[in-house]
Design brief:
79 residues, single chain
Length: 79
C-alpha cells in the first residue's frame, strides 16, 4: 500500500469475507471504501469494516459516491 493508506481484512471463522481501504483524497481529507463478498452481505460486515476504517483514520463521512463502478466509496473529513 502507498504511504497514508490503510487496508483492513474482515474474517469470519478464519475465512476472509471482506476488506476495506482508506486513504487521502483530492476532494476532501480522505476516503474509505468497504467491500464485502456477496454471500456475506446484509450481515453487518460492511458496516463493521466502515466503522473500523472511520475510527482508525479519525474520519466522518461527508458523502457516498460511486466512481466509475457500482462500488461505493465514502468521501470523508477529519473529526
Amino acid at each position: 500500500m502507498s504511504e497514508g493508506r490503510i487496508l483492513v481484512l474482515a474474517e469470519v471463522r478464519g475465512e476472509t469475507v471482506g476488506s476495506g481501504f482508506a486513504g487521502p483524497s483530492s476532494r476532501a481529507d480522505g476516503y474509505v471504501a468497504p467491500r464485502t463478498l456477496p454471500e456475506h452481505r446484509r450481515l453487518g460486515i460492511g458496516s463493521a469494516i466502515l466503522d473500523a476504517l472511520l475510527d482508525r483514520c479519525g474520519f466522518d463521512v461527508v458523502e457516498r459516491s460511486f466512481v466509475r463502478s457500482a462500488y461505493g466509496a465514502y468521501t470523508c473529513v477529519r473529526r
